[in-house]
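Researcher: Here's a chain I'd like modeled. Treat it as a single chain, no partners, no ligands.
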Amino acid sequence: MQNTKLTLILLAALLVGCGNAENNTESTESEEAVEEVTQPETDASSDSGEAANPILGEHISSLVEMLRAGDADLIAARVDFPLNRETPIPSIDDAADFQRRFSEVFDQAFIDQIINSTADQWAEVGSRGIMFDNGALWMDGTSGNITAVNYQSEAEKQMKAELIAGDKQGLHSSVATFESPLYKIKTETYLIRVDHLGDDKYRYASWKLAESESSKPDLVLGNGVFEYQGSGGNHDITFKNGDYIYKVERNVLGTDDTPDVTLTVEQKGEVIWSEGGTLVKD
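Model: Modeled as a single isolated chain. Structure tokens:
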């Protein structure tokens, strides 16, 4: 009876929340990006619940029960891998990796948030799926699989801080000051990194592919402008250098042939150089 009531409440919330959700960030500052279920306690009526899609409520209810039981094996079977973590934390690539790192992603604080959440914390966001708590967690609306977890546990925050500190030690002093790394990109000819400096400021640095990040960069540009392109997560970061415009295009959505990143240089509105790039996580 309790599960029936839970499902009806969730269905009511999804009906109310549809179309009102905010966009998810891989990121959190991410991407960069990084590149993130519940037992509502509201008094939503069953009439509202009956009008919504019952499959969505079932997806949420089953995830709530798995989290309540702390069953990492079952939850792993409901994850679309790789599960990206905020840069520079490595992504979780498969079920075995997820089981080892389960408590890093779903710590008790996050589990409690989900189990004790209210119905208005859930929303169906069109083709993007089901969103919890303004993007802390995303689920596919058809399969019910977890597609993103943007919540960050204290363990992951500590891991991120340690990884950033190690990253800075290996960099040339001219680019060793930043808040967090956004992207490291390899093309056929260049190694490029984009760092978030804080306060919506971004920096671009590039080396020839054979060079080390410990050497002085060939080019450093500041004052990057971050702009989302549509609602799918694709975005650009644009840097100006006199008559030249350097654009870093992050292709979150695309075909199998679409590169992770497209880099272009324009001069007076004409593209004079372009290469696809691959994201690198050390």
